[in-house]
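User: Fold both of these, please.

Assistant: Here is the first one.
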Amino acid sequence: MARMTMRAAKPADEAHWRVMWADFLTGDDEPCPAEATTRLWQDALADDGPLRMLIAADESDAPIGFVVYVTHGYARSPRSVCYLIELYVDPSRRGAGLGSAMLEKLREIGRDAGWLKIYWMTQADNFAAHRLYDKFGRRSPLVRYDMQVNEYEAG
């Protein structure tokens, strides 16, 4: 794998990140209005909220992937847990170990912070993601339900 660093998002990353985010959303049936994208970026830059973003950057410090995650309390442990919300690797960089490196970095952060675990979801038919994720965790027998309590914003 080519040299890659994982770091916090910074303002100069926004244009690259927005291109990656738009690609990430392609083909997804869940809407994502522009206001949500803007809020996500603003939250990623803030130091005081639970939402975090890590940028995977290449040798020239250009973004080539990202991880979005949030930590929260857990009813079954005094330790916090981490929900990995999104993981994206630039299509031209896939298959080179970048996803694994990103998960390893998140695991390192979690160990240092004392999290109990990291959990995530993926599409049932995203077999490439399954191959990666099967190396890091065990598949949960739980089934996700979504209860819509408000409509999505027009966007």
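And the second sequence with its predicted structure:
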Amino acid sequence: MRAKLTFPLSAAFAAAFVAQVEGMMVTRWAADRGSTCSATSPTGACTLNGTVSFLAGTFFAVETLAATLTALVLYRNGKRFSATVTAAGLVLALVVEHAWLVNYAR
């Protein structure tokens, strides 16, 4: 049983780590575009950006971990359509979240 889950768990945790880093970078980039982080703003104007970007990255990571692990286990059990729907749902959710960050988080 342990050997059966080694690959799905490894792949899911690797994807979650990448999502954590990428989510933090995108969130920090989106937050730094706002006028509150300009050179003329007070020193403490951007202090929350690090915390918010960490939380957003963690949200991306947990979402990616759950969907990736579910899709890989479904695929391994022969439920390919369900695995495809799960993976497509993850991609769609991440696209919507990134689009929101890029367009509306100012």
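The chain has a mean pLDDT of 82.
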